[in-house]
């Protein structure tokens, strides 16, 4: 991507506030060490049983996970465009110096090559951690992902597999990324049997879920919400730990409406829950799906059976977005008291200057709660 | 194996340019060597651009691809089976030569019988290897049997060379319960970890960057092995081919790219596929040691592959081999090639320049083969093929529930649900499904 370095600069400065104001407030799973007071997500205060913690933003948590993955598995390698010097989002800083040039290296600028190369590594028994610079540029690798990676084990009768492959890629809106630095392509991948698709909401989950993806015996796509790289800071357990794939988190318990989101949108919904409580006296249950494929249907069903209402929100366009799949799951018909609401990006390309009007922000979501 | 051949592969640039015969000599082409252009650089006035190592010139000249003849086709024996240059004769062991010949003909026999069985509707699809048997056996014999093979689909001979049995070929084509692929893929999509042959998929050229990744893995493992990746000249037009060549070169991977240039991609002739000097002509531009070989000369293919293997394993650098051949059969059983090429053209290759008959002539001259042996082997190989054929046809298909396994390493909850649903449905409507042809499913437990 020609603009990646400029873009990196923009992300950094954009978040300092002179470029635009953010459409969400990051709510950490842990309170920062300096604040010392608990918040309502404290049941996700995972650090107390995972030992020492360190203050990390999301990109540092990713680096930390990658470092642990390389340390614990001598076969593991990291590769992609510009990963050697630390990556355009700083996710691989210091890893080449620490683990060697044969383990952390640049590839030519070619996404289909990166994914194909990663599949080959995994087929030969290597743990392959590929980076696609932006999720917007993953499509040249779509054939390798859908026809090859996803079907490798099945078509060979389990003679061969590429389960050792993980593809990491930055995803989602960033304030000014326009058409090709903002996309959320998860629903394209949700239609591909054979892969797992995972999105974290913050540094702790990023570390735990990424380590699980790397060690899972299936090819995984790990989508990193790039707007959180610097803005999301948590006390992250220092030790090696994993979070189960295919399992959703109930972040807030509530009685009246179930809300389902993933990635950055979880934080938008967090605010919506508060607003709904304050303004409408509505008690919302907030679920972070965490894994798009295979998704945790049972957790969502159980919640909707309790609340009777469901609101799903995602940045990606509405039509055939993953919200449609969740909404179509018909196990709760007799429990539903209202039509399922979906608040999503509009069915347009992701625009530059109109981003504030495009995204499913808290006011659009709150309106949907009212309905 | 002569040193000169090794030298040419080792020094691709020099080898390429020393082979060029300049047709239209222009004054800028003042000499032919490692430098094509006249230089106006002086020692203190050199180009400093990071993107290339070259000299300045004050002459405006485009490099035209039609200025020189193509990369020559290396061969060891002529069409009558005579060794052309004694020093190039690999002097293969007698038993090895007989084995090569027998495997080529056995493949040919299997092709004929399976092709016919498709015509009779007994298998759904087939692709023959007619005319390309030499590229398979010549290259396979020059490899270590543990070198990993990534293929396209017309390389069954490589697998046969390594001992994949006739039964196994038939089981795959019949999608029966003994197929290693569990009946999931179309016929001729073979694969076998035991024979270090990665399962074939239909998508063209996707195996190419994958093979490079596997080669990188081998390099790190320092296992002394290499990867060979076969593909047709049509597949070489895919983006994945470009990715593979470039990744292999920049990441120094021990891989042999083996292109079967048989003149056609289904109906598309090569002049509609590319305008450069075939596939080998692209190699030097990527930094690949490259060579072109007569694919109907099994000894030449053997020599070239042997030398290439030495380069990739000892130097850790990739090599590109382009084997020139001709697709004698139809593209597949779904294709009638007379719709786009003449019967005479096909007949020429079948009768005048066939890898099997050329090797047979060579072996007759060496007194390694005669008409009696030919007849006896023909009968024997046909018998073997028919026996496996009959056996494979009688076996049941795999249990239908295997349609759900191996999507992931473990059955996910949603797939378990769908498997249960299928079992429930099929047991209720058993009359409408061909259950008698399949192995029995494990019974569905109603309460889970």
Question: What does this protein look like?
Answer:
The complex is a heterodimer of chains A (371) and B (448). Chain A is an alpha/beta fold and 371 residues long. Chain A is built from 14 helices and 14 strands. Chain A has helices at 4-14, 58-72, 95-99, 111-123, 142-148, 152-155, 186-190, 203-215, 228-231, 265-280, 297-307, 322-328, 355-358, 362-370, and strands at residues 53-57, 77-80, 104-106, 128-131, 165-171, 196-198, 220-225, 233-237, 249-252, 257-261, 284-288, 291-293, 310-317, 341-345. In chain A, the strands form three sheets. A seven-stranded mixed beta sheet of chain A has the order 3-2-4-5-7-6-12, sandwiched between helices. A five-stranded mixed beta sheet of chain A has the order 9-11-10-13-14, with helices on both faces. Chain A is globular and about 55 Å long. Chain B is of the alpha/beta class and 448 residues long. Chain B has two domains: 94-393, 3-Layer(aba) Sandwich (Rossmann fold); 400-437, no CATH class. Chain B is built from 14 helices and eight strands. A six-stranded parallel beta sheet of chain B has the order 1-7-8-4-3-2, with helices on both faces. Chain B has a two-stranded antiparallel sheet with strand order 5-6. In chain B, helix 8 links the parallel strand 3 and strand 4. The longest helix of chain B is centred in the N-terminal third of the chain and has 26 residues, at 94-119. The radius of gyration of chain B is 25 Å and the shape is globular. The model of chain B is unreliable at 1-35 (pLDDT under 50). Chains A and B meet through helix 4, helix 5 and helix 6 of A and helix 7, helix 8 and helix 14 of B.
């Amino acid at each position: 991507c020609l603009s990646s370095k400029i873009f990196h600069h923009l992300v950094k400065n954009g978040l300092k506030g002179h470029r635009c104001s953010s459409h969400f407030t990051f709510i950490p799973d842990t309170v920062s060490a300096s604040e010392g007071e608990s918040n309502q997500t404290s049941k996700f205060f995972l650090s107390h049983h995972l030992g020492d913690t360190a203050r990390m933003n999301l990109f540092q948590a990713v680096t930390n996970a990658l470092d642990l993955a390389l340390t614990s598995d001598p076969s593991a390698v990291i590769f992609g465009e510009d990963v050697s010097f630390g990556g355009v989002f700083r996710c691989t800083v210091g890893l080449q110096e620490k683990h060697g040039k044969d383990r952390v290296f640049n590839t030519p600028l070619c996404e289909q090559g990166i994914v194909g190369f990663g599949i080959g590594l995994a087929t030969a028994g290597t743990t392959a951690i590929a980076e696609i610079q932006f999720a917007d540029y993953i499509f040249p690798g779509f054939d390798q992902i859908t026809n090859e990676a996803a079907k490798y084990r099945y078509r060979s009768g389990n003679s061969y597999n590429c389960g050792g492959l993980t593809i990491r890629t930055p995803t989602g809106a960033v304030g000014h990324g326009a058409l090709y630095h903002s996309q959320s392509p998860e629903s394209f991948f949700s239609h591909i049997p054979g892969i797992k698709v995972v999105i974290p909401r913050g540094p702790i989950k990023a570390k735990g879920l990424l380590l699980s993806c790397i060690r899972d015996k299936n090819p995984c796509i790990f989508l990193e919400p790039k707007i959180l790289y610097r803005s999301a800071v948590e006390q992250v357990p220092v030790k090696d730990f994993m979070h189960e794939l295919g399992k959703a988190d109930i972040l807030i318990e509530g009685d009246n409406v179930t809300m389902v989101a993933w990635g950055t949108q979880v934080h938008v919904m967090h605010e919506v829950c508060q607003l709904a409580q304050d303004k409408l006296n509505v008690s919302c249950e907030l679920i972070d799906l965490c894994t798009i494929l295979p998704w945790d249907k049972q957790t969502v069903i159980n919640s909707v059976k309790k609340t009777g209402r469901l609101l799903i929100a995602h940045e990606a366009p509405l039509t055939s977005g993953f919200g449609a799949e969740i909404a179509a799951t018909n196990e709760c018909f007799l429990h539903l008291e209202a039509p399922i609401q979906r608040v999503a990006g509009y069915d347009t390309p992701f625009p530059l200057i109109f981003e504030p009007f495009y995204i499913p922000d808290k006011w659009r979501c709150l309106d949907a709660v009212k309905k | 194996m002569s040193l000169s051949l090794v030298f040419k592969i080792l020094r691709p640039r020099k080898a390429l340019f020393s082979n060029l015969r300049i047709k239209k000599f222009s004054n800028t082409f003042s000499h032919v060597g490692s430098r094509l252009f006249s230089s106006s650089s002086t020692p203190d006035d050199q180009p400093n651009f990071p993107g290339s190592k070259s000299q300045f010139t004050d002459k405006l000249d485009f490099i035209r691809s039609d200025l020189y003849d193509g990369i020559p086709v290396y061969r060891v024996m002529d069409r009558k089976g005579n060794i052309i240059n004694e020093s190039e004769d690999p002097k293969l062991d007698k038993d090895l030569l007989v084995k090569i010949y027998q495997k080529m003909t056995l493949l040919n026999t299997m092709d004929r019988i399976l092709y016919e069985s498709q015509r009779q509707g007994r298998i759904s699809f087939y692709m023959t290897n007619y005319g390309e048997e030499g590229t398979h056996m010549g290259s396979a014999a020059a490899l270590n049997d543990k070198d990993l093979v990534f293929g396209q689909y017309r390389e069954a001979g490589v697998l046969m060379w390594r001992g994949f049995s006739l039964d196994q070929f038939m089981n795959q084509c019949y999608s029966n319960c003994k197929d290693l692929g569990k009946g999931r893929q179309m016929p001729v999509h073979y694969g076998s970890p035991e024979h270090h042959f990665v399962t074939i998929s239909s998508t063209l050229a996707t195996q190419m960057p994958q093979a490079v990744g596997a080669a990188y893995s081998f390099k790190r493992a320092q296992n002394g092995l290499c990867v060979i990746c076969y593909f047709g000249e049509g597949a070489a037009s895919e983006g994945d081919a470009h990715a593979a060549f470039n990744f292999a070169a920049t990441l120094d991977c021990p891989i042999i790219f083996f292109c079967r240039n048989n003149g056609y991609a289904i109906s598309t002739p090569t002049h509609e596929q590319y305008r450069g000097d075939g596939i080998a002509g692209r190699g030097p531009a990527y930094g690949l040691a490259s060579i072109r070989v007569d694919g109907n000369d099994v000894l030449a293919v053997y020599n070239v592959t042997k030398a290439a293997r030495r380069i990739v394993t000892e130097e850790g650098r990739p090599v590109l081999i382009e084997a020139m051949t001709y697709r004698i059969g139809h593209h597949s059983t779904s294709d009638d090639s007379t719709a786009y090429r003449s019967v005479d053209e096909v007949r020429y290759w079948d009768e005048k320049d066939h890898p099997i008959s050329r090797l047979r002539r060579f072996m007759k001259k060496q007194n390694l083969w005669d008409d009696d042996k030919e007849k006896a082997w023909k009968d024997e190989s046909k018998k073997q093929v028919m026996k496996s054929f009959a056996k494979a046809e009688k076996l049941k298909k795999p249990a239908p529930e295997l349609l759900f396994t191996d999507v992931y390493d473990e059955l996910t909850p949603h797939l378990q649900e769908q498997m249960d649903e299928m079992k429930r449905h099929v047991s209720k409507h058993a009359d409408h499904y061909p259950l008698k042809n399949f192995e029995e499913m494990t019974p569905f437990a109603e309460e889970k």
